[in-house]
Every structure is written in structure tokens, then in C-alpha cells.
Write a structure and sequence with these properties.
2 domains; Rossmann fold; Arc Repressor Mutant, subunit A; two-stranded antiparallel ribbon; 227 residues; disordered N terminus; alpha/beta; globular; seven-stranded mixed β-sheet
Length: 227
């Protein structure tokens, strides 16, 4: 590959420890645009085209990509499939990720139903619950186990990611059990902040907060950006 300056006019040379979560989120969006572009049989795409399809500036696109190397040539743009595959690798999505789910209620079953998870390489290999009525059953091919089986199942499937979909009062206890079982990342749907040991990362998704934020922006006539 060529240098960042040669590829799309950016200087490159930035340290990866400066990369923000916003940059990573935009990489995911670039990847989706590149998927579509590949389906459209486009061989190259410019930073302007990537920017327009993502609602950002071309300078932002070049800056984001320059953190990771060089992917295009001035006047030609970025090779669609090559950049798509490179971003897939950067995001760590070029292999499958086994996931465990704690909480086989409505949110948990929605996670199992979510086809996009599987398309992106996330496979829920097991669910866990404390409700005796749910134990021993299989939902869409995902078995539901009692919590005491958590360490065993995580070790068997080499699981590093867990989803917490339990009530807030139970979430920290579940988080502790996941941490003790070797989890490295947690997607949290409980309405509470989780305290984790060093080295474990948590992303909390609170749909009510997202809706409240959206309502605020709507009330302000869209004068505040959501992204």
C-alpha cells in the first residue's frame, strides 16, 4: 500500500491510541457504505462519496482512515473491496465472535432474533437465566442454561463477550459473574452503570435515554446534531 498522503491527500502518521470511539463508529458506517458500493459493482469510491453517504465531510473521512494506513490514490479514490476488507479487519470482524447472553426475557430473545448480529459474525452460543421455566429449553437454537453453568460454557466456547439483559437490580451481580468467568467485553442493556475490573470494557445501551435525546432534538427543531 502507498502512504496516506499518496492515497487520499492526508498526512497520516497519527498514533492509534488517539483514536476516539466516534472514529470507530464512523468506520462501521463506512464499512456499510462500502458493502453497498461493492454490491453496486463500484470498483472505487472517493472520500467525497463516502462523506456524502455518511453525513460527514471528506476531510473527516480522510482523517479517520489515516489513523490506520493508506487505502487509495489521489484522483482515483479508494478501492471499494480492498477498503471494505481492511476496515473489517481493523474492527476485528474478519472472524466469528461467540457471545453469551444473560437474561432470556424480551430483550434477550430480541438479541437472539437479530439477524444482523449473525451477519456481522456475532453468534450467541448460549443464554442464561434464573427462571426455572426457561431453563433447559432452546430458543432459535440457543440453549438456556442456569447461571452456575456460565464459567463452563464460556470456557468451552472461548467466549470473550457477554450481553447483560437483566433487570437493573441484578445487573451488577451478573456483571461480576461474567468478569469472574473471563469476559473481556460486556454489552449492557440494564438501566444501571456497571462497575468492572480493569481490562473489561462495557458499552451500555439505554433505549429510553436515546428516545429522550431524540425528543429533545425534535423539540429544538433539529438544531442539535445527534451524531
Amino acid at each position: 500500500m502507498t502512504s496516506a498522503a499518496e492515497r487520499d491527500g492526508d498526512t497520516g502518521g497519527r498514533e492509534r491510541d488517539q483514536i476516539s470511539l466516534s472514529t470507530i463508529r464512523r468506520l462501521s458506517r463506512y464499512y456499510r457504505v462500502l458493502e453497498t458500493a461493492a454490491e453496486e459493482d463500484l470498483t472505487h469510491i472517493s472520500s467525497n462519496q463516502l462523506a456524502e453517504r455518511n453525513g460527514v465531510t471528506s476531510a473527516q473521512v480522510r482523517k479517520d482512515l489515516s489513523y490506520f494506513g493508506t487505502f487509495g490514490k489521489r484522483g482515483l479514490g479508494y478501492p471499494v473491496r480492498e477498503l471494505r476488507d481492511e476496515i473489517l479487519h481493523i474492527l476485528g470482524m474478519d472472524h466469528q465472535w461467540p457471545v453469551v447472553l444473560v437474561g432470556a426475557g424480551n430483550i434477550g430473545r430480541a438479541m437472539i432474533d437479530y439477524v444482523e448480529f449473525r451477519r456481522r459474525g456475532f453468534f450467541i452460543v448460549a443464554a442464561f437465566d434464573v427462571d426455572p421455566r426457561k431453563l433447559g429449553i432452546s430458543y432459535k437454537g440457543v440453549p438456556v442454561f442456569p447461571m452456575f453453568r456460565l464459567p463452563e460454557v464460556m470456557q468451552t466456547h472461548e467466549v470473550e463477550i457477554g450481553i447483560v439483559a437483566v433487570p437493573a437490580l441484578s445487573a451488577q451481580r451478573v456483571c461480576n459473574q461474567l468478569a469472574e468467568s473471563g469476559v473481556k467485553g460486556i454489552l449492557n442493556f440494564a438501566h444501571t452503570r456497571l462497575i468492572v475490573p480493569p481490562g473489561i470494557r462495557v458499552r451500555t445501551v439505554d433505549m429510553s435515554i436515546e428516545m429522550e435525546t431524540l425528543v429533545y432534538v425534535v423539540n429544538k427543531n433539529g438544531s442539535f446534531p445527534l451524531d
